[in-house]
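User: tokens in, sequence out, please.
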């Protein structure tokens, strides 16, 4: 569900999803989860006026994605047709041997080296 609100000149959108039937997911044993903090599936009609109880501003910063692990890099190479099954592992080894990346031994994630 999606709820669009207008507060003065500023528009806001809230989205939420609730699972109403597990159907195929129960048979396939797939974990599905509700999304959003509030169930927006009912009780609102277009044009309804809502009373604002509280407004707060939170400052957050975006974070870059995690560095790739060796297995993630191999999966991406395979997906994009880079190398052959026989050569992909050696390409990853070459990148490490040439010190283009530093491998974190605990997480197996590759951090780009300084230029």
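Assistant: Sequence out:
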């Amino acid at each position: 569900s999606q709820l669009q609100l207008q507060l003065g000149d500023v528009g806001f959108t809230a989205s939420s999803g609730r699972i109403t039937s597990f159907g195929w997911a129960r048979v396939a044993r797939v974990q599905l989860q509700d999304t959003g903090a509030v169930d927006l599936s009912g009780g609102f009609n277009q044009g309804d006026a809502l009373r604002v109880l509280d407004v707060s501003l939170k400052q957050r910063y975006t974070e870059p994605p995690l560095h790739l692990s060796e297995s993630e890099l191999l999966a991406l190479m395979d997906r994009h047709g880079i190398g052959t099954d026989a050569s992909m592992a050696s390409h990853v080894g070459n990148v490490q041997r040439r010190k283009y990346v530093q491998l974190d031994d605990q997480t197996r994630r590759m951090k780009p080296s300084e230029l």
